Amino acid sequence: MSFSDLFDNEFKQRNKGHFASIVRLALADGVFAPEEKEFLDKLAIRLEISAAEYEEILENPTKYPINPPYLNSQRIERLYDLARIVNVDHHLGDNQEVMLAKLCLGLGFTPEIVDAVVSKALSLADEKADLDTFLIEIEKAEKMNN
Fold first, then answer.
1. From CA 43, how far away is CA 87, in angstroms rounded?
2. Strand, helix or coil at 1?
3. Closest CA to 26 of 63, 76, 81, 75
4. Residue 92 contacts by C-beta under 8 Å, 6 or more apart in sequence?
5. Phi-psi region for residue 67, left (φ > 0), alpha (ψ -120 to 50) or beta?
6. Distance between CA atoms of 99 and 71, rounded to whole angstroms?
7. pLDDT confidence of 123, banded at 50, 70, 90?
8. Spatial contact of 40 and 23, defined as CB atoms under 8 Å apart
9. How far separated are the first and last CA of the chain, in Å rounded?
10. pLDDT tens-digit series, residues 30-88
């Protein structure tokens, strides 16, 4: 196996873990809303998840670990995806905050800032903020709460 194959494999594993985290959130209420399914379909393509991997992840999303990204900007991008999927499923109520907080910890956000980051992320998702705005605002929330 070549060095580039190792890199590609690690990259794919991280993408599968990220996708599985989003599937866990989408399945929190036991079913996919049509908007969630559409989002998952598009995200699978963007993350280069094959059809077979897609089905496998849908069947058992807990099989894949949350792989925290190394860069803060990547961590925030993953949070952006997670916050958007949680926002689609408004009827989760307080559970959406609890689930997103657990995933934030898994992504590598420190316990001291998780509550502020989750609150800001959900607020930005409600406002339908774009990724650039989301990055800037979450970084501000991190700095204010560190």
1. 16
2. coil
3. 81
4. 28, 29, 86, 99
5. beta
6. 22
7. very high
8. yes
9. 43
10. 777 777 788 788 888 878 899 999 999 999 998 887 767 788 998 999 899 888 877 76
